[in-house]
């Protein structure tokens, strides 16, 4: 699996977030809470869905699968003027990113994560 490296412009995202760990993965719960409500977001840029993970600055210093991080389910929007109830915003700063495309069940993604974090 080779990542695609791109210089990306800033992205503004509206969605839902949840704290979880790899040992206590709540990805399914997060997306089940977001998907029925995604049509409440009216200023989408496109139909792409974003799964975003935000780790603390020392998260990988002493990796522990029980350490929590923040995970988002969302869509890119033109602005933050209208935010549906119980949804939040996150801005992804512009910069150089490695993009990994994974298609499949979240329960089968461990091998992809192993590659990303270890290689």
Walk me through the topology:
Elements: E1 4-8, E2 11-20, H1 27-34, E3 50-54, E4 69-76, E5 88-92, E6 95-99, H2 110-118
Antiparallel strand pairs: 1-6, 2-4, 2-5, 3-4
Description:
It is a single chain. The chain has 119 residues and is of the alpha+beta class. It has a single domain (4-118), classed as Regulatory factor, effector binding domain (Multidrug-efflux Transporter 1 Regulator Bmrr, Chain A). Helix content is 14%, strand content 32%. It has a four-stranded antiparallel sheet with strand order 3-4-2-5, covered by helices on one side.
Characterize this entry briefly.
With 119 residues, this protein is α+β, with helices and mostly antiparallel strands. Helices cover 14% and strands 32% of the residues.
Task: Please supply descriptive tags for the structure shown above.
single chain, 119 residues, alpha+beta, Multidrug-efflux Transporter 1 Regulator Bmrr, Chain A, four-stranded antiparallel beta sheet, two-stranded antiparallel ribbon, 2 helices, 32% strand
Total number of distinct structural domains: 1
Let me know the number of strands.
Answer: 6
Structural class: alpha+beta
Radius of gyration: 15 Å
Which CATH class is shown? Alpha Beta
Overall CATH architecture: Alpha-Beta Barrel
Q: What is the N-to-C succession of helices and strands?
A: EEHEEEEH
What order do the strands of the largest sheet run in, or round the barrel if closed? 3-4-2-5
């Amino acid at each position: 699996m080779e990542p695609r490296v791109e210089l990306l412009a800033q992205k503004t995202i509206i969605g839902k977030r949840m704290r979880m760990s790899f040992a206590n993965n709540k990805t399914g719960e997060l997306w089940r809470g977001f998907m029925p409500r995604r049509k409440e977001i009216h200023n989408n840029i496109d139909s792409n869905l974003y799964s975003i993970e935000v780790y603390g600055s020392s998260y990988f210093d002493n990796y522990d699968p029980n350490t929590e991080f923040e995970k988002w389910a969302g869509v890119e929007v033109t602005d933050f003027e209208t935010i549906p109830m119980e949804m939040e915003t996150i801005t992804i700063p512009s910069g150089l990113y490695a993009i990994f495309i994974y298609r499949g069940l979240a329960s089968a993604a461990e091998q992809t994560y192993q590659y990303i974090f270890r290689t």
